[in-house]
Amino acid sequence: MRFLAILIVFFPLAMAFPRLGLHEGYTRLVFDLEKGVQYQISQTPDTLTLRFTGTRPAASDTDVGSPQVASYQVVPTPQGANVFVRLRPSVEVKTFLLEDGSRRRLVVDVLTGSRAPTSPSTAQPRPSPPKPRAQPKVVVLDPGHGGVDPGAVGFVVEKEVTLDLAFRVRRLLEREGVEVVLTRDRDIHLSPDKATDLGLRAEIANSKRNLFVSIHVNSASTPAQGIEVYYFGNTLDPALLAQVIRENGGGEVGRRLTQEAQSVSQRIMSDLIAQSNLMFSRQLAHYVQASLLRATGAVDRGVRQAPFYVLRNARIPAILVEVGFANHPTEGRRLQTEAYRQALAEGLARGILRFLNNGE
Ligand SMILES: [Zn+2]
């Protein structure tokens, strides 16, 4: 199994306030405190507020996009500055103060569930703020296509299979206490214009949600079968690009949206936070692919990167799943059956739950 064992991105910008560290299972904010700086911490379920006096950092508003922290905002005040950290649902906050000599650092760790990093031995424990009320994790399921856009047509019609699968996965996740948001719950398009349609689907995957899964059915001009899971990125494979163009709306529109998505993928190369979100997306993709294969015994077509428009601006882990080929004589007929759809749904749900539970 190929998934990311550990991810550490650390970028100490000169005088950054706070310094940000993204780690597997937690996000760390480090505030360097000059002499005489005082602070207070308070917390509501979705915001951690730090009030500093005696320091004047520059105003900023930063998207973090990690699984624990959506963003933080630094707002200067007459006495100092307030920092508002927007928390994802169901996180735990731990704070401690490190002092060596004249150097003081306030460390804020925002953790998924109960996985705690080990504090440095010099850490002085501070009373931790009240625990946030447990909030359900929220998953966005995007049944591909709909309305005027049937998607792939073969032994099955893509838009019907994706909606049915989304309903099945929703039932399974809700049973586990996970909240599910569907981008559509009927045979509709979100807009007749493909770019708007895909943009609206992606917008539903905002930072208040934990992850996004777009569900699709494949088709191919040469016989092919099996399951593949994508996270965002570029590809040089011409066959894959043809498929991406089709999912991005087909024809001239599909080519244009694919080009737009490709240029986003180039920008992401220099954006560390987007890069780290991609690593989480890759991990989600591997969990989902593995559990789908276990549940169905289908052919493994692998986890890959491609410039799908619907994934291009995701600030939460986001994947696109191709559950099988509508026009393959065996797989297409299998996709017609309740039993196979239920197996697919169980595979999808298990992979998602494993990601939400930190790989357990
Ligand atoms: Zn599709």
TrEMBL record:
One Pfam family of this chain: Amidase_3
Task: Tell me where on the tree of life, at the top rank, the source sits.
Answer: Bacteria
Lineage, top ranks: Bacteria, Thermotogati, Deinococcota, Deinococci, Thermales
Native source species: Meiothermus luteus
Where is this chain compositionally biased, Low complexity type? 116-125
Taking every annotated instance into account, which residue ranges of this chain make up the domain MurNAc-LAA? 202-353
- Key word Hydrolase present in the record? yes
One of the record's GO cellular component terms = outer membrane-bounded periplasmic space
Q: Which InterPro entries match?
A: MurNAc-LAA_cat, N-acetylmuramoyl_amidase_3
The record's region (Disordered) falls at 111-135
Q: Which protein is depicted?
A: N-acetylmuramoyl-L-alanine amidase AmiA
**Catalytic class of the enzyme:** hydrolase
